[in-house]
Amino acid sequence: MAITSWGKYPVSHAPLLTYRSGMSLPDGWIARGMGRSYGDSSLGPHMISSLARNRMLAFDPETGVLTCEAGLTFDDLLRVMVPKGWFPPVTPGTRFVTMGGALASDIHGKNHHREGAFSRHVLSFDLLTGAGEVIHCSRSSNPEIFRATAGGMGLTGMILRLTIRLRPIETSAIRVESVKAANLDEILSMFDDFETATYTVAWIDCISGGAHLGRSILLSGEHASRDEVAGTAWDAAPLLLPRKPRISVPLDLPAWTLNRFSIAAFNTLYYHKQLSRKKMGMADYEGFFYPLDAILHWNRIYGRKGFTQYQFVVPRAVGRTAVQDVLHRVQRAGVGSFLSVLKLLGEPEGMIAFPQAGYTLTLDFPISDRLFPLLDTLDEVVCGYGGRVYLTKDVRLRAETLARMYPELDAFKAIVRELDPQGHIKSLQGMRLGLC
Question: What is the CA radius of gyration of the chain?
Answer without folding.
Answer: 21
